[in-house]
Amino acid sequence: MPTYRDEAVVLRTHKLGEADRIVTMLTRYHGQVRAVAKGVRRTASKLGARLEPFMAIDVQCYEGKNLDTVTQVEIIGAYGGIISDEYESFTVANVICETALKLTDDEPATSQYLLLVGALRSLAKKEHEPKQILNSYLLRALAIAGWAPNFVECTGCQEPGPHNAFYIQTGGVVCDRCLSPGAAIIGRETTKLLGALLAGEWEIVDQAHVDSKNAATGVVTAYTQWHIDKGLKSISHLERA
What we know:
Blueprint: E1 3-16, E2 20-27, E3 32-37, E4 56-62, E5 68-77, H1 80-84, H2 87-103, H3 110-124, H4 130-144, E6 165-167, E7 172-174, E8 184-185, H5 188-199, H6 202-207, H7 210-227, H8 235-238
Parallel strand pairs: 3-5
Antiparallel strand pairs: 1-2, 1-4, 2-3, 4-5, 6-7, 6-8
Helix pairs in contact: 2-3, 2-4, 3-4, 4-5, 4-7, 5-7
């Protein structure tokens, strides 16, 4: 059977039998891959710790009819243990990985992979607040998937912003003239923050007021749940973090 090698992030794992594990990964060039890691739950296994959620790895597999089989693993980024030690980071990482699962399939998704690795690396290194890392990741992942929000100009009449309201159905901000029932009044500071989260302008994000951050989180969560089929189950745990 043909073998292949790729970079990957472990998204989730499931027990299989007494000693094996099914590992779901997002790879750089092969999209989502589900593979059996044989014997990794045994104490003597050297691969077990490398195949935990949130780990960035270099993996070799050989192709199977239904599931591939992991044959070799090297660590690229040991993010799993660091992230799992802190509850908020752990819940954020779960939302990130569930999003990656929802937005990708077995087709190559290199941009989604690189965004995922960057988010988990930033989370592990504590570069920014966990929830703001998540907000930025969600907006950018949705943009890659074709649902880029518009925080620059009114989605009704294209009047340049900043504007005070966000309307999920049109995917962006709206001016006072185009304001529709159901639009969220968020204020210009929150609009500016949302644009910075989408663009990765972290100086603006880090200096934003807590009220604007909370408002931005509400907008991002609602926008994400609107677009992702059946929503994200892990977000409910995040809200209690």
